[in-house]
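Per reviewer request, we include the raw input and output of the structure prediction for the construct analysed in the revised manuscript.
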Amino acid sequence: MSQSVGQAGEEYTAEWLSHHGYRVIERNYHSRFGEIDIIAVNSQYIVFVEVKTRQSNGMVSALEAITLQKQQKIITTAQVYLSQYQGNLQPRFDVAAVTAQGGKPLGLKYFPNAFGS
């Protein structure tokens, strides 16, 4: 998958979040530990969103593509962000699984609290 398809999936997800009551506050946040695709807030949560864009005929699901090691990198990066964040919202880790065909996003499945507890 090309980088531009991944970016299109992230843009699609950011728009979806905005239409569902979230405000995107960061995109592609980096620390020395890793990257978080999207950071958004709503009235209860600060949400760290991992976006996985897959071709419609892909063999590996978006959730399967996020290994425990990848989850740990995201959590550690989120801890760095939260150490500088001036809010008191509850953190949550979500996954957006974007399906693409011909390089264009077709749909999205959203998994709140995808990493569990």
